Structure formats: C-alpha cells, structure tokens
User: Fold 3-hydroxyacyl-[acyl-carrier-protein] dehydratase FabZ from Pseudooctadecabacter jejudonensis.
Amino acid sequence: MSDPITTADIQLIQRIIPHRYPFLLVDKVVDIDGTASAVGIKNVTMNEPHFQGHFPGTPIMPGVTIIEAMAQTAAVMVGTTMGLMDKNMLIYFMGIDGCKFRRKVVPGDVLEMRVETTRGKPGGKVWKFKGVATVDGEMAAEGEFTAMMDLQG
Assistant:
C-alpha cells in the first residue's frame, strides 16, 4: 500500500478536476488529510480576466470566485484521497450557505483556503464542506457549500 497523497501540484489538480483557464482557481493543495481537510493556495494575479471588469482601476477578486476556489480545493482533496485522477469527474454546486466576506482580495495576495468535510463519505455523491479563506492570516471569506461529485462514464 502506498503512502497517502498530502499535496497536489497543478499537474495533479488538472488530472482530478475538469476546470481550466480562466476558471481553474487553485494553484496547489497542501496538508491533505484524507477526506477530512485540506488547504488550497491561490496566487492572485492582475492578469486574471475578471479584473478587467471587477473593477477597472480597483481590481478586487469577486466573492463568488473565492467560494468557487474553496469548492475546487475540496474537490481536489476528495479526488486525491479517493484516487479519482483521470476519471472524468464533474462537480456541481447544490447549495451555498452562510457566506460572509470580510476582506478584499486583490492582485498580489496569496489566498489560503482551509476546507473541511462536514458530511460525505467515499463512494457517496453528495458532500458538504466548510471553508475559510484568508490572506496573511486575515479572514477574507467563509462559508459552507454542498456539492455533488459525478463520475462521467
């Protein structure tokens, strides 16, 4: 039996989730603890397309993309632990609850997303997670989200 994977670089992330530019919103996932918890890292850069319109002259990462980045972190955590590399998995939001935004996220920030599973088990399709996103230790966003993980064929 091989050692569990505790870190996913961008190449492994792309083998697990289908997202690609401009909607791949996590650069690395570290501290993967089975399906219990993980930490996603997103390096926020000015060349991301949403900054053209959100907002001209005052670039701020949209809150919905922060929540999406947390969800992608959770999907990588589950996919890595369950060996879903190259399995053509799609992930759908089923619910987003209790989201709060506390700090602007701007180009140059490193967004750290801590996610933990609150419901779900290997083999199950529906999972619920709690996430907190921080920049330099300061909370930027938090929320809970439910997703369905669907293996295609």
Q: What stands out?
A: Residues 63-81 form the longest helix (19 residues). The helical segments are 10-16, 63-81.
